[in-house]
Design goal:
Strands 1-2-3 form a three-stranded antiparallel beta sheet, with no helix packed on it. The protein is built from one helix and five strands; from the N terminus they run βββββα. It starts with a strand and ends with a helix.
């Protein structure tokens, strides 16, 4: 049985996010397969999430080191300065 991938847009998640459905065969029982949902961001490799406030910028509105929220004097930014992360890095660090 081949792994099947279906990408579908869901109205219950934020714009630009997709669920990927993978059919996976369980190694110890080759006759049994499961379907799992995984959240995918098409531009997930780009570092466009602010580490300080968590705001995610689209590729069109993203300018490195220019988070609109953190540029406000009232917002706390670490002494090390503005830092960015990607969606994929965030997922890996929280799973």
């Amino acid at each position: 049985m081949k792994n099947k991938k279906h990408i579908q847009k869901s109205s219950r998640i934020n714009p630009g996010l997709f669920y990927t459905k993978d059919t996976v065969t369980i190694p110890w029982n080759s006759g049994y397969s499961i379907t799992r949902n995984r959240l995918v961001v098409p531009d997930g490799e780009k570092s466009n999430i602010c580490c300080t406030c968590g705001t995610r910028y689209s590729v069109l509105n993203y300018r490195e080191n220019h988070c609109r929220i953190c540029l406000d004097d009232r917002q706390y930014v670490k002494e090390s300065g503005q830092q960015w992360t990607s969606f994929n890095t965030l997922v890996e660090s929280h799973t």
